[in-house]
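My current task is to audit a protein record that another person submitted. Alongside the sequence sits a line of tokens, each denoting a local backbone shape. Please read both lines and tell me whether the tokens look consistent with the sequence. Do not assume that whoever made the record got everything right. Thanks in advance; the entry in question is below.
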Amino acid sequence: MQCFLEEADKKQEEDSRVRNWVSDIREAVYNAEDIIDMFILNAQSLRRNFFLKCGFKKLINRYKVGKKIEALQLGLLDISNRREALGIKNIGEGRSRSAKNQMLQGLRRSSPHAEEHVVVGLEKEADELVNQLIGGDLRRRVISLVGMGGIGKTTLAKKVYNHRQVVECFPDCRAWAYVSPDCRPRDVYMQIIKQLVCTSTKDQQVLEMVEKLQEHELGDFLHEHLKEKRYLIVLDDVWSCRDWNCLAKVSSNDPDCLGNVFPDGGNGSRLLLTTRDKDVALHADARSTPQEMQLLSKQKSWNLFCGKAFLDHVDADRYPPDLVQLGREMVDKCNGLPLAIVVLRGLLSRDMSHTEWRKVHDNINAYLAKEGSQTGVMIVLNLSYIDLPSYLKPCFLHLSLFPEDYVISTRKLFLLWIAEGFVLSAEQADQQSMKVTAEVYLNELINRNLIQVVRMSVNARVVECRVHDLMRELAIRKAKEQNFFRTHDIEDPLSSSTSNSSLFSSKCRRQSIYSDMERYASVEHNTPYLRSLLFFNLGHEICRFSQLDFIGKCFKVLRVLDLEGVKVESLPSIVGTLIHLRYLGLRHTGLKLLPLSIGNLRSLQTLDVNNLKQVPNVIWKIQNMRYLYMEGQKYDIPLKIDTLENLQVLSGITFKQWIQNNSSKLTCLGKLKLEGRYELVEGVEFWKSIAKLRVLKSLYLKA
């Protein structure tokens, strides 16, 4: 069913019937997952019961599970029958272009003649680009503009394409082609040929002849026409390396091949690409550095807004201060994304009344997301989501759990993705490579301009990141469509008068709590199949949980529990019943002790805690543990960990605790951080224990 969902997901954007049907399939997947997890939970609890009583309950449990599986099978059969009744063809069959897809491409289709009159903040970038196009070496170069959707790549390309110096440098052989997500080489070749070859009525016969050619013949025709010329061709909106290979006819067996369609005559010819994916730019020409476009500063954002919202932007300050204040607040919400600012100024320029501006101000996300004509910012951003491969979509949706403008630790993000099952499982990939794979996923999302880098390490690895507000809004919308998650913050308070079903669907898989945590703990919860629960203390108040029993009682199949930053007085022993728990985040909670029942968490992969008085000597039982963080222990008591053969990261163990374990059993340990008093251990013995770690890559000693 998961494999089917991956294929169907590509088509549901185009057809509402497919979308509703896919929703039913996803519900069935959730049901199957719930049946399995609850069966395992019940089987585990029965092991502790009296033998005869246990045997009887086992039979009842199996009978109930059998009935649920039968109901699930009937539901799947009904879904299959409804597909035929609705006339939905097999996924991948049918029309190649839906009406919605054609509408989207019509909105996105670019032309070099429709140049923006109000262009702000691109002067420096335009000058650099012009110099690259008309200067440099004589080899054929591919110069790329890279950036997130709506950042102004096409606008800058138009400005440069029509620049006087560029026109003079390429007077007779200049063409612009729009590629689109649905790349069709024949259409692209015809766009170029019509501009380069068929420029007058006398060329009508040539055009008729050309239109009869097959795709590969068109490529050969274009190659012959360009072979002796110095040309500039703009390929706007190239989505993938595969699309570039198809357009340039690059051999998959020879990645260094320059391609057969666009020849290198050694005369200074240029191709200019616009793309959202940095990998496309590097693939097209590894020797040229892509020009990565940046979001506008606050001042440049305001200047762009004033260019149309206030008809005479030079005198914008003479307008009522209340309008100016509202305008600045709305522009700040656009976070420097030019498309959002242009859409906003178009909306507000129609009506300069305070009432209208206040209405837009209070519902800005809804206005920016409005579909249709030129006002659909989300339509443009959504194309980036549609283009994601199936393995990256849940990773992107997961970012919606974090608060607005939240700086995300990539270390934590990787561990959450692994716990969620978004990274390849142990059967498909080596355990050691899962964190590496998660980092590859992150870098791919960054290269696709869906995530922004905040801070990098000295060895050029991303340490912190964030998501643009509008990208986060897109992720939230998509996540809610799929019951992927729900959020609660202080601006949407829980109340006894509001039904739980309206707050959280019973099938909701993840919840993110931003504030008002005491009240959240006190309400009745109707999400028994919740898999992830994340708390964020954003500084609104000091939150203290006197007890957390409700988590163990209400969310029995929980896989991720993150309480980082929330002041917790104690962790109840009932947490030990969460046998599906894979990630437990307790950093900066103020906890001093962990319950002994934590040793029952056999599925736990990550334990992240700090500043405990002591770590209970039951960790050795959690043999699935991979990432153990326990910095800042107050007391140096014995701690057995040499049974954890899957352990990859161990941070915070003391020198004395370490030397009491047989390190040769830790065959997967790649990162080790030791703390405490080094003088308590014998030096030679200690270094011998380190030498036994065959895959160790990082050693940090804090004495």
User: Anything to note?
Assistant: The longest strand covers residues 141-146. Residues 92-99, 490-503 have pLDDT under 50 and may be disordered.
